[in-house]
Amino acid sequence: MTVRALRQVESGFLADMLYEAIFIPEGHGPLPKAVIQDPSLSRYIENWGKDKLDIAWVAEADHQLVGAVWGRLFNQEHKGFGYVDDRTPELSMAVVAEYRNQGIGTRLMKSIASEYLKLGVEYLSLSVDKANPAVNLYQRLGYTVAGETATSLTMRKRLK
Prior knowledge:
The chain has 160 residues and is an alpha+beta fold.
């Protein structure tokens, strides 16, 4: 398995991973794929690469892309679910179901954190459903709770 920067020609893969990143609680059926066209979700991938802080890493196994982590800087006026402030990029991550629990998420998260650190970014943030097992991964990687709703956590990590 290889973890590497997303190539511009692969930016369409982020749409697949955005859909995979939507947490569906056990016992609930899948949402229609068109859900990622909602502005609250599409903002995570639309016009990808327009900003120097639009950064994405992918995992490749068996000659196919199997996971991605990507970050984008939002602002107060147009914020994501894990928005903390105008200086903190927000991450999204997903791994294809059959490749989960193999350390891919850990490698992706460490790779993107390293890249943002090189750019002088001080913090990263993300939003995660409280019932999502990925909460444990984020805590293990040093993310702490910065905000909370009834169903989700906003988590933040200091890089430097």
